[in-house]
Amino acid sequence: MLNDGRHQALDTGNNSEITRILFGEDEIRARVRELGRRITEDYRGTTPVLVGTLKGSFVFLADLIREISIPITLDFISVSSYCGSSQTGAVKIQKDLDESVSERRVVIVEDILDTGITANYLMKWLRARNPADVRICVLLDKQARRRVDIAPDYVGFEILDEFVVGYGMDYNQQYRNLPHIGILRP
Ligand code: PRP
Fold this sequence. Notes:
Blueprint: E1 18-23, H1 25-42, E2 49-54, H2 58-65, E3 73-83, E4 86-95, E5 105-113, H3 117-127, E6 133-141, E7 154-158, E8 164-165, E9 181-184
Parallel strand pairs: 2-3, 2-5, 5-6, 6-7
Antiparallel strand pairs: 1-9, 3-4, 8-9
Helix pairs in contact: 1-2
The protein binds 1-O-pyrophosphono-5-O-phosphono-alpha-D-ribofuranose.
1-O-pyrophosphono-5-O-phosphono-alpha-D-ribofuranose binds next to β2, β3, β5 and α3.
């Protein structure tokens, strides 16, 4: 059962699987706005390229870029390393970037930093392509499960070791369309 009375918002056909809303739409919007403001200030005078990792980051990225008021460009990369909810440790690039990042300021945009294996791999992969610099912006940081030494530059929320879905994040490809972030029944 939900704990905040917003039963209507969860009516996506899968609602019995969501036990609790962790971050509602308003809270997410306010935090994303703040991240956009910070990126705007930090990158003023430059044109960074924001690299979204498919698929999980697409909702966050879509909202984030509309809170950034300097010129940016956008690219996408698709990586996979999970099988269901298990991190296999073997990161594979499924879709490469479309544009060169040489001499560019790069911001990797991730929905969640869990073990950190995906982001760590991407940082190394991008740094080998001669960018001006590379930073990471994550909506959720789940430090309890970290398996590599990586510290994100921009963090939306720190979360405990719970399985989250919604706002782009999935379990077996479902729940990405939830407008909030919820905890999936164990
Ligand atoms: C999720 C998420 C990150 C990664 C983080 O992707 O989008 O890329 O896991 O986990 P890690 O820190 O343990 O490496 P996932 O492989 O589930 O694919 P998706 O983005 O298509 O949902």
